[in-house]
Write a structure and sequence with these properties.
Layout (H helix, E strand, L loop, with lengths): L2 H11 L4 E2 L2 H6 L13 E4 L3 H14 L3 E4 L16 E4 L6 E5 L4 E4 L5 H9 L3 E2 L12 H7 L6 H4 L6 E7 L5 E5 L11 H5 L8 E8 L1 E2 L3 E9 L2 H13 L6 E6 H7 L13 E9 L1 H15 L4 E6 L3 H12 L1 H4 L6 E8 L5 H15 L3 E6 L4 E8 L6 H18 L18 H4 L2 H14 L15
Parallel strand pairs: 2-4, 3-4
Antiparallel strand pairs: 1-2, 5-6, 6-10, 7-11, 8-9, 8-10, 12-14, 12-15, 13-14, 13-17, 16-18, 17-18
Helix pairs in contact: 1-3, 13-14
């Protein structure tokens, strides 16, 4: 990179906030994928004005600029695939305002999701989106990916809680979308355009989120089933009964085999699926909801039910879900984690398709996720040291995404497209739809400097 560019960046952000050190470039060269690309320079922004000036500089020099939070994404969304400037937003980490009268909060993009949740809960409020990475992922990254989580079945995803944004556009302008009111139909809904755009259309520098009153109580249960069909039928039966649980998490047979022996809770030998069901709300209502749930799922091959009576017992149930990821390495050393989504009634069909793909290609596939909204985390476990494994993985992924689309599903529920799924975009979207998306990108980013190489194969 030209030394004049680095000098300008130091003038904008300060010497302590600009680095060309190899260690800093390596630190910001990767995410949760197994890809790595070195940037030319790392800039740690502290203000919206600095972000704007960096982006304007990038336009003048035609240099890629990559907005980055915690770098915890699973699809390569923050990878500097063409080098350039990695613009780190984690130092913009203030909770600016928590408005208890209007139930909103205003935050900077570097605020860690779980920290916002802890602060609002101290005031009796609630921010529902809860990605698995919430203890380290940032609100800016959640906005860029439209993050989800287990509570989506009842409360929705990130886009359902974003009322307004301050955004630095790809040309460096600073604009505001939405606001601090629940109703706002003035002009186009640009807020929704930016949420989920994976940092390709703008950089959120302030975020206004909607809050809810914190539920008074919760009740957690773990139900073991003799078949995945029984678990899926139970999910549909619960929804048909007009009960919307907070979470409906599932683990398939391959996952259960991974955690058997590691869980403090006994798992039946014949168990082929697990549902973790949680309800929240008024304490006096929860026991009735639990009874209703148990009544409607009783016909579907239940082997064992555990209902938490205390917070510690609830944590013990959730520990069953939390030990899944560390247990996967017992299967094989390398993991390819994808998040397809299908209509929830099609979850058994998708699991059977995944079991067939696993058998056909001789690779273990472990599946778990959010049964309430059909979001399946597909974990293909392999040893990349084996000859021909990268080519085999490509074929397996083709089959996985094709099966999801055939079941009227989608190739991503919450991880985004980034670099790792770009080549599969045409499986789900027609050429005309993709072309319109590319026109939006070209209109907002005429020099193609903001996170290029993401979502589309050619950008």
């Amino acid at each position: 990179m030209d030394k004049l560019v680095v000098k300008e960046l130091i003038n904008i952000a300060g010497r302590d906030n600009v680095s060309t050190a190899t260690s800093d470039k390596i630190t910001h060269s990767y995410d949760a994928t197994q890809q790595r690309y070195l940037p030319d320079v790392v800039v740690y922004a502290e203000t919206t004005e600095q972000v704007s000036l960096v982006v304007k500089l990038a336009n003048r020099w035609k240099i890629p600029v990559l907005p980055r939070g915690a770098g915890s994404g699973f699809t390569g969304g923050t990878l500097p695939v063409r080098g350039g400037i990695v613009l780190v937003l984690t130092r913009m980490n203030r909770i600016i305002d928590i408005d208890t009268e209007n139930l909103i909060a205003e935050v900077e993009p570097g605020v860690v999701t779980a920290e916002l949740q802890r602060q609002v809960e101290k005031l009796g409020l609630f921010y529902p989106p809860d990605p698995a990475s919430k203890e380290f992922s940032t609100l800016g990254g959640n906005v860029a990916e439209c993050a989800g989580g287990p509570r989506c079945v009842k409360y929705g995803v990130t886009k359902d809680y974003i009322l307004g944004l301050e955004v630095v556009t790809p040309t460096g302008d600073i604009i505001k979308t939405g606001g601090r009111t629940l109703k706002n139909v003035v002009g186009y809904d640009l807020t929704k355009l930016f949420v989920g755009s994976e940092g390709t259309l703008g950089i959120a520098t302030r975020i206004i989120v909607k809050l809810l009153p914190k539920p008074a109580a919760k009740k957690t249960m773990l139900v073991q089933f003799a078949s995945i069909d029984g678990a899926a039928q139970s999910v549909s039966a619960i929804i048909r009964a007009k009960i919307i649980p907070t979470t409906l998490e599932f683990l398939d047979a391959a996952t259960i085999n991974c955690i058997r022996g590691a869980s403090t809770l006994p798992l039946a030998k014949l168990c082929r699926a697990i549902l973790i069901i949680e309800v929240d709300g008024d304490a006096q209502v929860l026991d009735r909801q639990v009874r209703e749930i148990l009544a409607v799922i009783e016909p579907f091959g239940i082997l064992h039910t555990r209902i938490a009576e205390t917070e510690d017992e609830s944590e013990e149930i959730w520990q069953v879900r939390r030990i899944v990821s560390p247990s996967l390495r017992k299967v094989n050393p390398d993991k390819f984690n994808e998040d397809i989504v299908v209509p929830r009634s099609k979850v058994p069909d998708m699991i059977r398709a995944l079991e067939k793909i696993s058998l056909d290609y001789g690779v273990p596939i472990v599946n778990f996720g959010h049964a309430g909204d059909g979001n399946i985390h597909v974990n293909v476990m392999v040893d990349l040291r084996e000859d021909g494994m990268p080519e085999k993985i490509d074929k397996v992924m083709d089959e996985v995404f094709s099966a999801a689309v055939k079941l009227k599903g989608a190739i991503s529920g919450e991880h985004g497209i980034g670099t790792s799924k770009a080549k599969y975009l045409q499986m789900e979207l027609d050429v005309a739809t993709i072309a319109y998306m590319q026109r939006i990108k070209a209109a907002l980013d005429p020099n193609n400097v903001l996170n290029p190489g993401k979502i589309f194969l050619v950008t």
